[in-house]
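Suppose a colleague, Dr. K., hands you the sequence of a protein chain of 207 amino acids and asks what its three-dimensional shape might be. Before reaching for any lab equipment, you can write down a predicted structure in token form. Begin with the sequence itself:
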Amino acid sequence: MEAVRRYQVTGYPTIVFTSSDGGMISKQVGFAYPNDFAPVIETVLEKEQAFVEQLTKLERTPDDAKLNAQVALTYLERTQLQKALPFSKKAFEHDPKNKTGLLPNLHNQLAVTYATKVEAAMVGAPEEAEMYFEKAVSHFRTVIDKYPKSDVKDPAQYYLGVTYAIKGEFDDAIAVLEKLIHHTGDANIKQNAEAMLERVKDLASSN
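The predicted structure, expressed as tokens, is then:
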């Protein structure tokens, strides 16, 4: 069950390709014939080789902001938050003006990772849930306030609203989602935000 939760397995059959340290390189959901499956394996091997090469380069140039950000993003994609954190810190330190263009996405992915931990921790570990919540909000707010022209600003605002709702802070969730609906130019995000807003209002009225 731990593997099912960690790798977010929602259907069967599911094949998870992992690295030697347990990181999820890729996930194949559903049946595939052998001829269709071979390219999947090749892609996984290529991804792993590329990541190993990045880590090797980073050993030679440990302060390279772009490499640190790329490695951090890969670890986050592999659901390895703790491994991502030191590389994220270096990326932020060595690229204060976002010359790499990667920092908004890095903040957003860190925020999403922390946000996914909030609900799971709320029942048995409320202090941890609060910590995850605060970190998620901080990273989402950084994207929204510091990188307003970023492609991930609107998604960050949407997920910030969702995170407030998960935490039960419905007034904040409503305010964030309503603001997003009024300014976003993305039809899909607007539609999702409107649907989420209705759900949050229903939850707020029932409490």
